Amino acid sequence: MKKWFAAYGLIFYRYLDYRGRSPRSELWNFIINTLLIQLAIHVFAGKSIVSFIFHIVAMIALAALIVRRFHDIGYSGWYLLAIFVPFVNFIALFVLLFFKSAPGENRYGPRPPPAK
C-alpha cells in the first residue's frame, strides 16, 4: 500500500513536468487509480467542488504524463494536440452547414427549390 501511494504521489509531484520519460506502468497506474478515486469521490461527495478540483488537477497531470509517455516511445509531446482535431473538425462542419447554397447549377445538379 505504501508503494502504491508513493507511485501515485510521484505522478502528482511531477504533474507539470513535461520533460523526460514515463513507462507504461506509470501511465496505467495513474489512469486506473484516478478512476477509482473519482468513483469514490462521486459516491461519497457527489458532484461537488472537490470532485471538480480533483478532476482538473488529474487532467493536467495526465497531460504531462502522456507527453512523457510519448517521449518514452520516441515521439514529440506535441502529438497530444491531435486530440483537438475532432473538435476542430466538428466546428468546421458546423460552420459549413450554415453556408448559403451555391448560386445556379453546380456539378451536383440544379439548385433545389426553397423549403416551404
From TrEMBL:
Swiss-Prot/TrEMBL keywords: Membrane, Transmembrane, Transmembrane helix
Gene Ontology terms: cellular component: plasma membrane
Record carries keyword Cell cycle: no
Matches recorded under InterPro entries: DUF805
Transmembrane segments: 27-45, 52-71, 77-99
Keyword Transmembrane helix in annotation: yes
Official protein name in the record: DUF805 domain-containing protein
Species this protein is from: Oxalobacter aliiformigenes
